[in-house]
Amino acid sequence: MGAVRLGLSQGVLEIRQFMRSREQVMFTLAFPAILVIIFGSVFSGTISEGVKFTQYFVTGMIASGLMTVGFQALAIQIPQERDRGVLKRLLGTPMPKWVYFAGKVVMVAFVAVLETVILLAVATLLFDLRLPDTAGRWLTFGWVAVLGITACTLSGVAFSSLARTGRSAPAVVTPVALILQFTSGVFFVYTQLPVWMQETAAVFPLKWMCQGLRAVFLPASFGAAEPAGSFELGRVALVLAAWCVVALVLCLTTFRWTTKRDG
């Protein structure tokens, strides 16, 4: 229980630091909801029988939100903390190293849940989003979200070692996140993208997160419109789990507590 309490305490500290940054709160929580309002108002038609564009778009925005919280935020935040010497100072304290990562995980989980609730509330109230109507769909929503946020969080920690300085981190991370969003079926219907773009996006987790969430929010018949003719939930789970393993290995082998100038 002492270890759990220590991890939760670090998580509460991380959440407080996040909430004190108005710009970060605005971008992380409000920006996805604003995009739903804009796209939902502009594209009010349907993409197939019984499927409105908003219903499709929300699935991509939820997945994109999870990626932003887990991957983009950590891949930018950690290099900045490393550059300021925060990580180096932590090495000189009695606090176990794992507590730092536990705090990040708690913060990511808190923000991801809050952001998802806001997105669902906005889409339901303003655009009549149809929420999952069976326990099975909610269960699918749960495991896709957990595997997805885990893969993104681990990938964010691993990717944080690429930025040479904290100042350069946004320039390194943001283009990657944007490219994945535009090629993974977030802003456009995935099957309408060029084949080479689809095949490239299929290497990364976001595409599979979007596909898994479409199985939750879209009619079962829409699965026939997917590239493989179904939602492929088994493959979604396999790919996301594989990314969790690969990203974890990269975290363990590449993570740096100090900058190169610190030695």
Automatic annotation (TrEMBL):
Cell location: Cell membrane; Membrane
Translocase found in the keyword field: no
Gene Ontology BP, a term: response to antibiotic
GO molecular function terms listed in the Swiss-Prot or TrEMBL record: ABC-type transporter activity
Record organism: Krasilnikovia cinnamomea
Lineage top rank: taxon: Bacteria
PANTHER family tied to this protein: NODULATION PROTEIN J
Single GO cellular component term: ATP-binding cassette (ABC) transporter complex
Transmembrane segments: 25-44, 56-78, 98-126, 138-159, 171-190, 236-255
Protein name: Transport permease protein
Membrane topology label: Multi-pass membrane protein
InterPro entries the record matches: ABC2_TM, ABC2_TM_bact-type, ABC_2_transport, Nod_factor_ABC_transporter
Protein biosynthesis as UniProt keyword: no
Family classification: Belongs to the ABC-2 integral membrane protein family.
Keywords associated with the record: Antibiotic resistance, Cell membrane, Membrane, Transmembrane, Transmembrane helix, Transport
Ranges of residues in domain ABC transmembrane type-2: 23-258
